[in-house]
Amino acid sequence: MPYITTTDDVEIYYTEQGTGQPIILSHGWPLNSDAWALELKVFADAGYRAIAHDRRGHGRSSRTYTGNDIDHYAADLNDLVEALGLEDIILVGHSTGGGEVVRYAARYGKDRVAKVITAGGIAPIMLLSEGNPKGAPKAVFDSIREGVLTDRSQYFQDLSRAFYGANRDGATVSQGVLDDFWRQGLEVNVASAYDCIAAFSETDLTEDLKAITAPFFLAHGDDDQIVPVDAASNNAIDLAQNGTLKVYPGAPHGISGQFQTELNQDILAFIAE
Predict the structure, then answer these.
(1) Which of the following is catalytic: 95, 192, 233, 256?
(2) Is domain 3-272 in CATH 3.30.565.10, yes or no?
């Protein structure tokens, strides 16, 4: 299996398909690059070099006890880009991965990033504060921490339903989709999963959003129960210099089914502009 070693000696697993302009896909919590299995083929078939990696602590990458934060995630992504010698990059980030690609683009990618796409991205910040009245209170994230530390297997099974909107009347999400979320969740190192909760809830990406000059497509479902659009992309679009926001009616946080089909079509159309 292909790996790169970061500057602080963490092994990062990655997989790629196709040739052409590179598209880097950054997954959400608690998933790994398997979440992008379909996109790897769809984007490779469209003539791109599609690359997805397992974030540190997730999937097949090193089970890290330290460095489980957005700064290190972005630095790891930079190490991957450097190791593969990538230029003219298209970044795609889902959820926590949206925070990762935003920080990478702002901090490392000025001369290398062609376009940025987030889906259900965490930017600018999820935590409730006086300056962020639509955010979620710390108690919400403390309950996630409790789930990870007490019975994470059952917790990930329960979380999968809200993640993909399977708890809504008329939902058509398959058991297989829910099971795959659970499977990927159990591959996360517990310390990494726990620390990442602070990373995705408390990291302020306001200045990063302002710094990105590349064309930026923000996609978000209006029934996202994990990263509500009003607390995230509806704020992020006001900070992005060159941003376009599309809100998908009825779409959940997780990318599957019709939402996945439409989103992938929109990403390819945005890239081609």
Answers:
(1) 95
(2) no
In degrees, to the nearest 5, what angle opens at C-alpha 132 toward C-alphas 126 and 135?
Answer: 40
Where does the chain show beta strands of DSSP type E? 3-5, 11-17, 22-26, 49-53, 89-94, 113-119, 216-221, 243-248
Name the one residue in this structure whose structure tokens are 């997730």.
58
Find the catalytic residue in 26, 208, 253, 256.
253
Q: For this structure, is 53 an active site residue?
A: no
95 has catalytic annotation? yes
Among candidate residues 69, 76, 208, 224, the one labeled active-site is 224
9 close to 3: Cβ distance less than 8 angstroms: no
**Paired tokens of 229:** 């659009």
Q: Could you list the mean pLDDT of each consecutive 10-residue stretch along the chain, which spans 273 residues?
A: 95 98 98 98 98 98 98 98 98 98 96 97 97 94 98 98 97 97 98 98 98 98 97 97 97 98 98 95
DSSP code string of 142-211:
HHHHHHHHH-HHHHHHHHHHHHTTTTSTT----HHHHHHHHHHHTTS-HHHHHHHHHHHHH---HHHHHH
Integer Cα distance of 8 and 214 in angstroms = 29
Which pLDDT score, from 0 to 100, does residue 127 have? Answer: 97
The span from the CA of 144 to the CA of 44, in Å, is: 35
What gap in Å lies between CA 239 and CA 245, rounded to an integer?
12
- Verify whether residue 253 is a known catalytic residue: yes
Q: Is 24 helix (H, G, I), strand (E, B) or coil?
A: strand
pTM of the shown model: 0.97
Radius of gyration, alpha carbons of the chain: 17
Give the dihedral sign, CA 230/272/209/23. positive
